[in-house]
UniProtKB/TrEMBL annotation:
Protein name (database record): Uncharacterized protein
Region feature Disordered, mapped onto this chain: 210-234
Amino acid sequence: MIIGTCYLPGADAITNDPASQYLEKMCYPNLSNATRGTSLQLSTNEIAASLARSSFPCEQEMYIEAVCTANGTTPIDFLAEQECLCTGGYWEAVRGCNACNYAHGYRGSPSISAAAFEHSTASYVSSISAAECHVSPPYQPFSNLLPTVNITSLYDSPSITLASDRFPNNTAVSKYFTATRSMTPGNISGSATARLTSWTNYSGLRYTPTSTPDTTGSPSTSTSATSISAAGSSATNGARAGAVMARSGRCLLAVMLGFTVL
């Protein structure tokens, strides 16, 4: 399944995986449109913001992640991130993005049935959304709930094998998904509005809590910065905006760099 979709500049061109390139064109039609990018003259930091009005679930998932991701490492920053992800349509966009990839032949395993794929996706989304949204107060960033991705291994991973495409070369969302709510960021309110609003973690550090919640659900709120392994060749899934698609044999994950919360 796909969550936090894994995006890196030009990765598909480097790996030359036609299946990944095809999924990108079907599920990220605006982002993958080189002519659009050139005509809009977008900087790296503007790519995700340009998707704000996109009707495509995968692009909305990327946009919402970009604007919601915590810029700082205090409880206020994590609360703002939680409100933004959990009170809006992020999880709806995740569902829609998974539906797009499945409709166009992505299975993880070519033999998995539609029912099994849907069940697996629903179970995973339920689990990770509960981990992010049912903690009060939140004590870690959403990115800590997602796996660390080794970028180098993505380039070396096997090509994706697609199953039957239900709607070949057709990007229409209506063919594979009907949203039950708007796919927009949630509202940040109250004390959470005091969160840090500029992105400063350009070194690619992964912030982890120094302790976990006790049995009463009241965590220690101090955090520390720990460097992710293999600096320069690893990245944390779900981090920032502006990226272009990378591929993995199991999923498409997103690594976003340098976006400021609106």
